[in-house]
Automatic annotation (TrEMBL):
Residue ranges of every copy of the Oxidoreductase molybdopterin-binding domain listed in the record: 58-229
Name this protein carries in UniProt: Sulfite oxidase
Keyword flag Oxidoreductase: yes
Pfam families: Mo-co_dimer, Oxidored_molyb
GO molecular function: heme binding; molybdenum ion binding; molybdopterin cofactor binding; sulfite oxidase activity
Lineage top rank: taxon: Bacteria
Length: 371
């Protein structure tokens, strides 16, 4: 007999779209206060200091100690494994510089707005992750011939749209065996901070954030496709609520601008003085190599190429771009867009019900003073 499932519908809201004139609610504000973005001036750092890296936590940050932590590897494997943190640290390590972006970045700019973590454009950061290639651990366990998916389970637990769950994501065996996929225990050379997955998280370079499972406690190799909530219900692009939709996977191209000049406190509107202004920012794509970055100082009417730095061997990390602008008194709208081998960022937001992968061009209104 099936155990009766508790009714969580009274405490767990279904996905919905905001009404036309509906502002951000207290509940969305509570999410935004926990899950902070990258202050855009921090785009100047090649590596984001951990406290400035964006943060997204679906449930609570689990309170874990490294001593008691174990990683279980089981399912369709020849030899199930139980690893301690010391076991992992004794294996050959690899360090990979990765730009991570939340799939919901840009969500709050959509009309209608999907009600969820209300990101503008700042859900991004770049870190150097050190750990053991997942492939090495899976090879030790011996992946069986019938394996199709690898399922990663975090130590955090919650309820989402009425479904009680551990945070869990599946990856195909092919994607899981990628050479830069890591079981990471260090961020920028130090142990992971609690909020970023201490003691060990998965890092899947090039993929939107949801794939990088934090507080990892279990890896299960599965002979059947994974049908858990975060793969089949949550992270899908859909126009209609009842269609299966397409899975959210690799990061679409995006460029961001360090807002120039200085801000007004309350509105954050930018102010510059007349004369030469250095424009700079970062651009990245997880799905294909970048082709170039363009800037506009007239709201997107005309574009010119920016100087794009090489990737310096970091194929999964953002690249710095710069451009010169001679500011003249008045109102201006600066804009920047990146192109990769598959295409250029769109002018308007690509809409879907979850608010995923909105990579519309970044625009920054600026007032230039008369002196
Ligand atoms: N266990 C667990 N892993 C998780 C999450 C989570 O809530 N629980 N959030 C995911 C999402 S949606 C994102 S965008 C990234 C954010 O990683 P960061 O907080 O280190 O920037 O972690 C992913 N991994
Ligand atoms: Mo995310």
């Amino acid at each position: 007999m099936n155990t009766p499932q508790p009714d969580l519908s009274a405490v767990s809201a279904p996905a919905r779209l905001a009404e036309a004139a509906e502002g951000i609610s207290m509940e969305e504000l509570a999410l935004a206060a926990r899950n902070h973005g990258l202050p855009l001036e921090s785009l100047r750092h090649d590596l984001t200091p951990p406290g400035l890296h964006y943060l997204l936590v679906h449930y609570d940050i689990p309170y874990l100690d490294a001593e008691g932590w174990r990683l279980e590897i089981s399912g369709e494997v020849g030899t199930p494994l139980t690893l301690t943190l010391d076991d992992l640290r004794s294996l050959p390590s690899r360090t990979v510089r990765v730009t991570m972006e939340c799939a919901g970045n840009g969500r709050a700019q959509l009309t209608p707005r999907p009600v969820s973590q209300p990101w503008l454009v700042e859900a991004v950061g770049t870190a150097e992750w050190t750990g053991v290639p997942l492939r090495a651990v899976l090879e030790r366990a011996g992946v069986g011939p019938g394996a199709v998916d690898v399922v990663f389970t975090g130590a955090d637990h919650g309820v989402e749209r009425g479904v009680e769950q551990d945070y869990q994501r599946g990856l195909s065996v092919t994607d899981a065996l990628g050479e830069d996929v890591l079981l990471a225990y260090a961020m920028n050379g130090a142990p992971l901070p609690p909020q970023h997955g201490y003691p060990v998280r998965l890092v899947v370079p090039g993929w939107y954030g949801m794939a990088h499972v934090k507080w990892l406690r279990e890896i299960t190799v599965s002979a059947t496709p994974f049908t858990g909530f975060q793969n089949t219900v949550a992270y899908r692009t859909r126009q209609e609520p009842d269609e299966p939709g397409a899975p959210v996977a690799r990061i679409a191209p995006r460029a961001l601008l360090v807002p120039p000049g200085f801000p007004d406190f309350q509105s954050r509107h930018r102010i510059v003085r007349p004369g030469p202004v250095e424009l700079t920012g970062r651009a990245w794509s997880g799905r294909a190599p970048l082709r170039g970055v363009e800037v506009s100082t007239d709201g997107g009417a005309t574009w010119r190429p920016a100087d794009l730095e090489p990737d310096h061997g970091h194929r999964w990390a953002w690249r710095r771009w710069t451009a010169r602008w001679r500011a003249e008194p008045g109102s201006h709208v600066l804009a920047v867009r990146a192109a990769d081998a598959e295409g250029t960022q769109p002018e308007t937001e690509p809409w879907n019900r979850g608010g995923f992968a909105n990579n519309a061009v970044h625009r920054v209104p600026v007032t230039c003073l008369s002196s």
